[in-house]
């Protein structure tokens, strides 16, 4: 059986005061209880698949509209559509499992009963997301999986081995979760398969609460940190942002379809050139709108991104809000 063992050490905080200490956090917990759903019962798995075999709109394929795309026959276009979708869903499956493991750690180490209660609900949420995405891959994509990208592996190694709850929260709730939300929104809007659209919309019901935890729990920690601690948090935030904005390229999907190394380089070049020309290509329109804007605004709002790191972010094509 494939598995990965990540060694680490964390302290456990046992709380004995069960009264409500943080009303806003307890409210988040109440919403989580109210909004639970069942992946077996609430998804219409029996819905027929699209007649042409596509899963997402072709516009979300990197090379759509390029000379390479124009040379592909209909069968290869459909196959590439399915493989790119399987690659993206594989990334998300690993991310949801990593989030489940990280949140199980957070139940141990976050201070405050309200925070522990909420994190317990997020463990359940992430387990359900892992379950529903894997079920979609098995039942609609023939079990097609791709390996975990190196940047994703690096990020979750950092999240799962760091003993500090606020570092885990920064990387998971405000960076990785925003990446996932952007992907789910993009796929919900562009899904050709109605089952995938429903899966993504259901998951999105949970994700906003998860980011909400970070926005509620972190401001006090950031505000009370020493200068050295704040610089460390800010540098770690930038590292996490760099990891989610670079290195995610579906190489194996193109290789499986028989693309040569030269053609794959052409794909990379086309993707880079299309990104530099405008923000209106479908992928960047969806992804930049949600990922860059939501993530950077939230991080800047709680002072985890300041003028000190503006050049580092600019190298990624990310601009800080004017007020930051």
Characterise the protein shown here:
- The chain is globular.
- The model has no long low-confidence stretch (mean pLDDT 91).
- The chain has 12 helices and no strands.
- It has 324 residues and is mostly helical.
- The longest helix has 36 residues.
Question: Helix-strand pattern, N to C?
Answer: HHHHHHHHHHHH
How is the biggest beta sheet arranged?
none
Number of strands: 0
Report helical residue fraction.
Answer: 55-70%
Report the span from N to C terminus: 48 Å
Radius of gyration over alpha carbons? 20 Å
Count of runs of 4 or more consecutive helical residues? 12
Structural class estimated from helices and strands: mainly alpha
Q: Which blocks of ≥5 consecutive residues have pLDDT under 50?
A: none
Describe the global form: globular
Proportion of strand residues: under 5%
Average pLDDT, rounded to a whole number, is 91
Oligomer: single chain
